[in-house]
Design brief:
five-stranded antiparallel β-sheet; elongated; 3 helices; alpha+beta; 25% helix
Length: 111
Amino acid sequence: MSGFTLSSIVKPLPDLLYEIDGRRFVVDSVNLDFGKVSLQDITFRNATGFPIFRSESIEFMRRLVEISEAQRIAELPTEPTVAEPKPELHNFRITDDHLGEGGAKAKFRTL
């Protein structure tokens, strides 16, 4: 690898998804020497059988991240959500001393 150093090629976290032109991409690698970002198309990851890659400039990716962060912030609720009041709890006291006595037929005879 002539001209490349370990510090010029960065492996970013693979869990960040970006949508470009209706397709989902994950960052594969970042080459700081050339100012390029390699993106892997995961839209058809299981269907195509081979990986699809796309190369974009670092500036393009910076704008994309800024736009996605602005959209994410805009989607956050601005007003604090008001918690619904909890219903009042009551402690009931069983006053029937003969509750549960007798079989099913005996219980229905008294009704």
